[in-house]
Amino acid sequence: MMQSIRTSALLATALWGVACTSPVEEPGSTLPGRCQADAPLISAQKTDLLFVIDNSGSMAEEQAAIASELPAFLEELQRGSGVEQDFRVGVITTSVYLRAFYDNREQLTDFPDQAGRLRPVPDERERPTAERYLDESDPDLLAKFRRLVKVGTSGSGQETPFEAARLAVTPPLSTTPVGEGGNGGFLRDGARLLVVVVSDEEDCSSTERPPPVLLTEDTSRDLCSEQSDRLTPVREYVRIFRNLDDGRGSAREVLWATIGPVGLTDKEVGTVLDRTPQGTFVRNVDCPTSYGPGFRQKEMASQFDTGLKNLDSICRPSFRETLVSIATLARTSQSIEVVNLPDARLAQVRVTREDGTVQTCSVAGGDLTYEPSAEGRAARLYFQSSCPRQPTDQKLEVKLLCAN
């Protein structure tokens, strides 16, 4: 009740002020002269999901574990909480290059058929097709998605998920049509981008060619971590991703999630040596199936969520809860596109919470901020801390108050 009174009072002040003339008649006013019958419509939330999956020799079990839990992931992703979801999924690998000293000589291997290129969707017999991404409306989405994430284990042992993702979503790949070998068409105008990295090793990404870090056959050392100062800084990759154009002249909203080499208990990062009959291997602390500590992986995740809800350990026996959490992140945006909204001061957003209570939020009350529509772009309402969207919300409605 107090919220309604406060909203009404602020709205009245905003609309009428101290003057006796109608705000409808003020110069530049967008207020309608009469009440509208049609309520504003909430546009479907568009999210493009890019999975970056490690395809080195140690990842067979992890890929199978991801594939087995995709039903729960998709089920959670399709829960709208009052907003229709419109998503698509593409998969790339962590393979871009491999610079190594083997057999007493330096070798540099490029992976031009991967290196950020969307993986072809395999058919039922595992043969590549012309499809490069999947839309949520595909009736065979689950079966195709399961085949798509099993990217094999013949890729580079120098994992570069950050560089692979950069190549995937920036020119020339992002602007070259799929039919010509690029990723053009995957990123949609106005869509959010969620990058999901799945790897059991540290990121070794660099924008330089040849890459600056040289690997050896010594499994007791993690040279990517030891020489991280030679790699492209994580903050530079963050800058690139946060400055992606959304196709409508604004910065694209980018989310990031990682299933990587961090501790099972508290997502700790640190180096331990595991001495086995097969040799000595570098692991991350509290993550016995990893192959190196995830310093850069954790830093990247923290740049997108300081609470690290977007980070989990690759050493979990099951990824069900992890994938459900990532899907929740994908479907719960703190902004919505609206059409048929003549003036933000007239809008009330009613959010039905998990327990059935309804919170009424408004621009006039300070619970929302408003970005007006522009050419090719719908208007958008942003939820503030006094009225945040929650993953458990049951319903979302936009109502229009009458100005006269």
UniProtKB/TrEMBL annotation:
<protein>
    <recommendedName>
        <fullName>Lipoprotein</fullName>
    </recommendedName>
</protein>
<dbReference type="InterPro" id="IPR036465">
    <property type="entry name" value="vWFA_dom_sf"/>
</dbReference>
<feature type="region of interest" description="Disordered">
    <location>
        <begin position="113"/>
        <end position="132"/>
    </location>
</feature>
<feature type="compositionally biased region" description="Basic and acidic residues">
    <location>
        <begin position="120"/>
        <end position="132"/>
    </location>
</feature>
